[in-house]
């Protein structure tokens, strides 16, 4: 067995062992509480534990009918949740989102470190039997700099076994000499107007970087996730090259030793190591902050009930690919099946008269007034796909060579309906959906939304994926000690506010 194979196996076993510290059945499940209507309410999820430290924490409340099956209806106002400090004032903002089908998402944001808190839950005005639920502290504010050992942190977040995509991506690289890799990258990708990347180093939990190219503003997203992780977990000393553009860089047909670029998007013809997109990353870090669209909020704004939705396909976006223009043309030929318009012209300004007028922007949540959501590539993969899957419509996805980090787990006709790259069978697929309405509705309920709930919102947390990627870099067999290059700059924390960390014995 090669060095790389041994390293990858050891890496996977380490993460699996850490996950076993907190079996899901013990950490999440609680006995259901009976309600005045004869229903019961089940409360579960990682946010019921004080050591589940994310910018916004969350748990789930499921209404269960008398026969033991999950309820399929719920009114938004049926559930009330209050989170308070037990012995001192704690500044905590709580939000309850209803998916409309008996499942509630409760998320909360801590504005200052809290020694201990309690969760009070009432359904239809009656407190649940287990209410209040104790949140043992300390509950640290997100900007508190108090990293804990890597394996302990994996257990706290219930990070599952290493994603197969990580192992597959890393398998292409071994015995990496970062000095040589950087030289190769600067020589082969010396296109500053079209290619920009950063050389990052994490040393003693401090972040350093040197960027190359003209357009390096997107380094803020990588800075943000690395700094967030460094506040929470003791990271390994690693170096990495992060591609700041949309297109993956290292082609599979390159005959020499490949450069291990970390990119937000992969493709069938490239070998970049794929990270969660900057959009999905920011929505995770800024949940209940400056970002309103995230994997939980979209499930709480699913639009009208299925029977009240428009039985047509819907799409809005910019002109970043010819097929998007073709989609608009198709919409004009079949207006009863498809509502598609361009909201911005940049790449095809000479065709504004043909494919315009430019439509006004609408809220993403309003997309779900329609039953069928169309996903068409932009410059690369359309980064809206996870949010479409989380919504309340059927997702129809264009065949594509591009993929995000979670695509390999998607199953066609279970999580989405595929259509050809040239859109030649899209009308046929929309017509099929209209003729099989009940089947399509069930598909949405148990297919795409369940996939998002289990894989994206609960199990494959963005922070877990990034941390496992960084740890996985060690399996590349770095041939040099990680060092801070003279040209690198230190990436300071985003806030200068100093927050003290509490220990379990304090407070």
UniProtKB/TrEMBL annotation:
It is found in: Endoplasmic reticulum lumen. Protein O-glucosyltransferase. Catalyzes the reaction that attaches glucose through an O-glycosidic linkage to a conserved serine residue found in the consensus sequence C-X-S-X-[PA]-C in epidermal growth factor-like repeats. Regulates Notch signaling by glucosylating Notch in the ER, glucosylation is required for the correct folding and cleavage of Notch. This is Glycosyl transferase CAP10 domain-containing protein. PROSITE patterns: FILAMIN_REPEAT (PS50194). GO terms for molecular function: glucosyltransferase activity. Pfam families: Filamin, Glyco_transf_90. It catalyses: L-seryl-[EGF-like domain protein] + UDP-alpha-D-glucose = 3-O-(beta-D-glucosyl)-L-seryl-[EGF-like domain protein] + UDP + H(+); L-seryl-[EGF-like domain protein] + UDP-alpha-D-xylose = 3-O-(beta-D-xylosyl)-L-seryl-[EGF-like domain protein] + UDP + H(+). It comes from the Eukaryota.
